[in-house]
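STRUCTURE:
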C-alpha cells in the first residue's frame, strides 16, 4: 500500500492472534511486559519504515508547522533518516494532516499493533529471531551515535516486512503507558490504559544497548509533550 502524496509505504497485517509480552522472568525490568498472553487484532496496515525527515518536511511546508528539534543537527537530519525531535502531539498532528490529505483515517499504531508488526505471531524476541545480533540494527552496540537512513538493515526485517522495528529510532504509539496494563487489558484489540502521564514508545534506538531495549516486547515511555533525539514514529490505518 502506497500513500502517494508523501511516497510512504504501508504493510498490511492480517487479522488474527499473536503472542504479546514476556513470560515472567523474575526480573523487575520486565514487569511492564508481563504476563505474556495471546492477543487478537483486527486487520490493519502500518508503516514499512519510520516517517522520514523528507516526508515530515512536506507537512511542515504545507501547514507552516514548527520544525522538529535537531532539524539542523547533521547526526539526525538526513533526508531519509527517521524524523526525530517530534512530540507525540506532533506525530498525531502529522497523522491528522495526512488523513485530511488522503481522506483516510491515519493514526499512530496501538502498542499491540506495533508489537505484532515487529515480531509476527510466534513470540520471537527480535524481529529476525530469538538471538541478539548487533549487525542487524542500529543501537549503542553499533557505536555510530547517530541515525541511519531507513531500511539500512535489511537483515533485521520483521516477519511481515517492516524495517527498523529494532533500533535506529523508537516509535511513538497511541497508548498511555501503565506498568500493569497487561494484567487488565482486553485480549481483543487492546487500546491500553484509559489515561496516564506518559505515552508508550517502542523499538529501541541508536542510543541504548539493543540486546534489552530492542526486544519486540520491551516497553518504554515518555511524556507526550517531550521531543527527543531518538524517538520518531510511523503511521497506521484500519483495513
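SEQUENCE:
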Amino acid at each position: 500500500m502506497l500513500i502517494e502524496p508523501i511516497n510512504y509505504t504501508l504493510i498490511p497485517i492480517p487479522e488474527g492472534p499473536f503472542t504479546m509480552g514476556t513470560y515472567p522472568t523474575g526480573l523487575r525490568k520486565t514487569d511492564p511486559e508481563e504476563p505474556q498472553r495471546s492477543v487478537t487484532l483486527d486487520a490493519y496496515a502500518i508503516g514499512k519504515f519510520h516517517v522520514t525527515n523528507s516526508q515530515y518536511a512536506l507537512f511542515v511546508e504545507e501547514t507552516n508547522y514548527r520544525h522538529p528539534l535537531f532539524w539542523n543537527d547533521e547526526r539526525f537530519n538526513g533526508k531519509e533518516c527517521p524524523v526525530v525531535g517530534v512530540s507525540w502531539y506532533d506525530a498525531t498532528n502529522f497523522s491528522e494532516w495526512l488523513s485530511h490529505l488522503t481522506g483516510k483515517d491515519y493514526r499512530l499504531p496501538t502498542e499491540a499493533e506495533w508489537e505484532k508488526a515487529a515480531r509476527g505471531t510466534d513470540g520471537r524476541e527480535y524481529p529476525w529471531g530469538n538471538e541478539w545480533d548487533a549487525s542487524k540494527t542500529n543501537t549503542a552496540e553499533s557505536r555510530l551515535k547517530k541515525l541511519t537512513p531507513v531500511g539500512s538493515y535489511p537483515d533485521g526485517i520483521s516477519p511481515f516486512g517492516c524495517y527498523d522495528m529494532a533500533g535506529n529510532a523508537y516509535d511513538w504509539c497511541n497508548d498511555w503507558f501503565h506498568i500493569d496494563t497487561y494484567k487488565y487489558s482486553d485480549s481483543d484489540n487492546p487500546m491500553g490504559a484509559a489515561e496516564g502521564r506518559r505515552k508508550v514508545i517502542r523499538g529501541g534506538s541508536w542510543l541504548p544497548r539493543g540486546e534489552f531495549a530492542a526486544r519486540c516486547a520491551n516497553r518504554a515511555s515518555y511524556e507526550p509533550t517531550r521531543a527527543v533525539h531518538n524517538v520518531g514514529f510511523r503511521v497506521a490505518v484500519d483495513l
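REMARK: Strands lie at 2-3, 8-13, 16-20, 37-41, 44-47, 170-176, 199-202, 220-222, 231-232, 236-238.
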